[in-house]
Task: inverse folding
């Protein structure tokens, strides 16, 4: 059986993706925008060992499988090829074995970009211990600051932007996001802000520069902290802003006026959420506010993580997502009164569109900086994430809570206006 025959049985003869293989066979529509190219038998081994997305990711990241054309279009086309899900796993394995070149006894190791379970287990059997969290964060964020500058742009904000208009640039949207968070937190000059999981310090610097706030940020990524401290000094913000290479659980100060958590909750773990929100509650003065900004699941009856999923293996080891209702419940259990909730799902799809375009524009530079395999991981995961937000597989929620003051005083206006003035 030729590889093209296997492809046709899985995807159908009129598949929107063209297929070409090293055995000379081909299938699919000749005018398709996307061509899947199986370059070596190793790609087939990967698919036999892990049928589905993980096997495809391994084959692509390692270079044994290629996708000619736009990655987002390729993933959208494959998403729509629902017929592949109708073939049982046993039948797919039978077809792969029928090709004749697959030797299941000679397993091919995953590419080095994959986080091996043994590496995580070496830092602790339980998820989300301090040592294991540090390893997981380092895997994703300590790649290369230069690489992230290529992808993220000048803002170095690796979280969902908030677009004030359809035609806003990425930089305008990231500024708008930081200002939206600042307004929700009610920041004013002289206040003290703690930003947990602060990344490259974007929120810390925005609060200091535009609101006169004394801001402390903490991150488990050493490279992020070094970049942020250098930038803080260059921008003359050292008297107000600081970023530390530190676990949020080890911050000694308290009595903050506000806490922002932008993109950290995904790394906390479901079992640790009560302690997480309680610890942030304890860091606030009465009347202080928490803005929790994180990726969420669209449904509460789905698992928090897929241990064998591509995202968990290649991008966010030990990452867990919860539905917004669950997060609200844990916040209220910790003592917060929830005052506002907003879903920015479409905004994250637009953010990822810009990041993907940045990576494609600087592709050769990115490969030179981090290697082809790592660059492929980011191209695959960002395009796939864009599709996930567009198709409502995942969402992005900002949840605003307050630690009530004396006699349950919230400090909020009757009709607060959070949206920054864009001049429109």
Result:
């Amino acid at each position: 059986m030729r590889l093209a025959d296997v492809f046709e049985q899985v995807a159908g003869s009129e598949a929107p993706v063209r297929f070409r293989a090293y055995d000379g066979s081909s299938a699919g529509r000749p005018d398709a925008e996307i061509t899947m190219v199986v370059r070596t038998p190793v790609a087939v081994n990967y698919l036999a060992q892990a049928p589905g997305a993980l096997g495809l990711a391994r084959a692509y990241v390692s270079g044994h499988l290629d996708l000619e054309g736009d990655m987002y279009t390729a993933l959208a086309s494959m998403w729509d090829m629902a017929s592949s899900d109708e073939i049982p796993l046993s039948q797919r394995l039978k077809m792969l074995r029928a090709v004749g070149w697959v030797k299941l006894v000679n397993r091919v190791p995953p590419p080095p970009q994959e986080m091996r379970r043994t590496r995580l287990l070496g830092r602790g059997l339980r998820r989300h211990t301090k040592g294991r969290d540090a390893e997981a964060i380092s895997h994703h964020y300590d790649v290369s600051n230069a690489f992230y500058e290529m992808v993220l742009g000048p803002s170095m904000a690796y979280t969902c932007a908030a677009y004030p208009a359809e035609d806003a640039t990425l930089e305008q949207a990231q500024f708008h996001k930081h200002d939206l968070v600042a307004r929700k937190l009610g920041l004013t000059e002289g206040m003290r802000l703690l930003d947990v999981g602060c990344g490259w310090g974007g929120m810390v610097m925005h609060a200091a520069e535009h609101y006169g706030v004394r801001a402390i940020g903490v991150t488990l990524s050493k490279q992020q902290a070094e970049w942020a401290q250098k930038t803080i000094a260059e921008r003359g913000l050292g008297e107000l802003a600081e970023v530390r290479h530190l676990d949020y659980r080890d911050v000694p100060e308290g009595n903050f006026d506000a806490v922002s958590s932008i993109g950290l909750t995904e790394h906390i773990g479901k079992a640790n959420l009560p302690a997480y929100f309680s610890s942030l509650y304890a860091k606030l003065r009465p009347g202080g506010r928490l803005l929790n900004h994180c990726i969420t699941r669209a449904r509460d009856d789905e698992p928090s993580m897929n241990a064998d999923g591509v995202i968990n293996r290649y991008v966010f080891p030990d990452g867990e997502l919860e539905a917004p209702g669950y997060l609200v419940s844990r916040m209220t259990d910790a003592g917060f009164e929830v005052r506002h909730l907003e879903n920015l799902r479409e905004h994250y799809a637009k953010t990822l569109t810009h990041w993907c375009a940045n990576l494609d524009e600087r592709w050769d530079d990115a490969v030179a900086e981090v290697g082809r395999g790592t660059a492929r991981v980011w191209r695959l995961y960002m395009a796939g994430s864009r599709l996930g937000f567009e198709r409502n597989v995942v969402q992005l929620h900002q949840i605003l809570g307050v630690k009530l003051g004396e006699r349950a005083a919230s400090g909020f206006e009757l009709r607060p206006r959070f949206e920054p003035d864009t001049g429109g």
